[in-house]
């Protein structure tokens, strides 16, 4: 199955219902897209890698002259374009189908900011991807990266009782097709090796400010603001 078809299927397959307790608590949730939008500074050009249905693009479109939003899934890109048009921001966005396992088509230093939400765990070589992001960022450019947190307390408990880590609701593949898992320490090290300085580490979710007090244990994801060295 081609990679694009796998993620198209993931986008269109029905997901199981969320537990009742979680649905009740969602009124106090800060989503990963909201968290990322608060970290992204304004600039000229933004590259949103793994844009999905374009939630981040719609939130931050007014801060940038132009945005390139990429995803491997044509289904996701079509939906993202429709939602952007409905919200009046489609004119300043270029939608690009791109497999991030490959080299990007952009020049060195092309973007003042890059965002990547819950995507690098699906890539064959995350280290090479991060080096590619450093290449296309301008000097002192901002990079906001979000990944699931393998060391989140519920994940530790799952391993303790012999259950596998579960970061995806999708029934496709193993844990929705995840190939890699990260902790705060490992993702920070990968970023530094690729040429980034860590500026802030936080998380999203229900009662996110409390979770961010101890991200490595209390947050289901890791959201990092980094700067190109």
**How many discrete domains?**
1
CATH superfamily: Vaccinia Virus protein VP39
Given the helix and strand composition, which structural class is it? alpha/beta
Radius of gyration (CA) equals 17 Å
Mean pLDDT: 93
Number of strands: 9
Mind telling me the CATH class? Alpha Beta
Structure description:
- With 229 residues, this protein is of the alpha/beta class.
- The chain has one domain: Rossmann fold (3-Layer(aba) Sandwich), CATH 3.40.50.150.
- The chain is built from ten helices and nine strands.
- The protein has helices at 3-12, 20-25, 32-39, 55-60, 74-86, 126-136, 153-160, 184-194, 208-211, 215-218; strands spanning 29-30, 43-49, 64-71, 93-97, 111-117, 137-148, 196-202, 205-206, 221-228.
- The strands form two sheets. It has a seven-stranded mixed sheet, sandwiched between helices. The protein has a two-stranded antiparallel ribbon with strand order 1-8.
- Helix 4 (55-60) links the parallel strand 2 and strand 3.
- Helix 6 (126-136) packs across helix 8 (184-194).
- The radius of gyration is 17 Å and the shape is globular.
- The mean pLDDT is 93.
